[in-house]
User: What shape does this take?
Amino acid sequence: MYPKLHSNDSSINPIGRPITDNEDSLLGSLVTIGAMFGPFPFSFIAGKFGRKIGLLCVAIPHIISYITMAFAKNIYLFFFGRVFGGLALGGGYSLLPMYIAEISRDSNRGTMSLTLTVFWAIGNFIPYAIGPYLSVMWFNIILAFIPIAFFIIFTSIGTETPYYLVEAHKTDQAETSLMKLRNAEKDGIQKELESIKAHLKSDEDGHLSDILKRSELRKALIICVILVVSQELSGFCSITFYMQPIFEAAGTNLSADTSALIVGVGMLVSSFISPFLADRLGRRILLVVSCSGMCIALFLLGTFFYILDSTDFSTDPINWLPIFSLLLFIFSFNFGLCTVPWTLCSELFPNNVKGIAASIQTSTCWLSSFIITFSFNHMNAGMGRAGSFWFFSASSLASTIFCVIFVPETKGKSFSEIQDMLRYGSRKMSLISNGNPEMKASNVWSTENSVK
Assistant: This one.
């Protein structure tokens, strides 16, 4: 939409004048303001009335946002639409990973959670595919049909999570939910139902103070917060929001529309990779490979712009490099860092504080996104385009090192096992699993005191 809103042609630009640079920056970053606050009301709704109701409510501000922007005639209505759409974005990022984690089996939770990458990639691909060929009004009207369709379909076929139903003391409904989710008879889900009850038995109403008091939960929160900040310090939102202007600046042989569409296709195709690998390779390996690939891609993109802006060398022999670098960047981002942090947040916290942790993680993510996105044009002016991409590359390198050292592996583990691993450490858990009597006794004693 940026080329249309920068146009002097009133038949293309509904505002009737080109937007200013500050308005450009606000349009890119205001969605993140809404997303900072979105997790809190929607997490409250999900905790009070259920995950399904919470997710259905997410659709409402999305619909309002698109309809507003479809018929907006001044910049302030576009600002309102972006902020309101951000509320839905923040709510979705908080609730959807939680919902998927709570309806999945332990053995396929990673695969199920990382299918989020596929659907987020579809959402990112659609604007690149249809945006250049539609007016601002029809572009937003078409996008409004997506949350409308979701609301209708999920109302009829969506099921509440068994974890929420057990927590709400609705055991019969939890049984029905599990039978539907597992396509099994009552006898076939009893073991899993008892496991859910046992996991929730010692949980009381959760508060932020519970996370801060318990060392394993503090550790989990720090890991999740650093990972989502790493997402933004990789420059993903800035780069995707300004994809078309980046290609225009690079001066490649392909048009900016075509180049952005190619990257959009790459975003979609790459999203199908990580769900197949999540429960084979594990979360940590996906993160390490993802951050390493982004580091390389951003370094190459920075090098291209350094040659273009700061040397006399011609970039004609390497005018393919921006598309290659951005495709590598998108593939790498989708491989792990896109969704694994949200998967980990849904796995590392017990049910009574999961909503609080998800809200903190999401708000931190979008606060970081606002700062980086709003600063992107200023970074380019102050550091040069090469300097901006090299900064993002260095951040990705730091994220790689952090993942290697600090991120725990949760592949195939139950929620209870993950809590024990955070509490006692991977080495002690290995000793317990291998039958070390002393460690078993210590584990039992500590667990009993934890329950008390």
Q: What stands out?
A: Residues 417-451 form one domain. The radius of gyration is 23 Å. Residues 429-435, 437-452 have pLDDT under 50 and may be disordered.
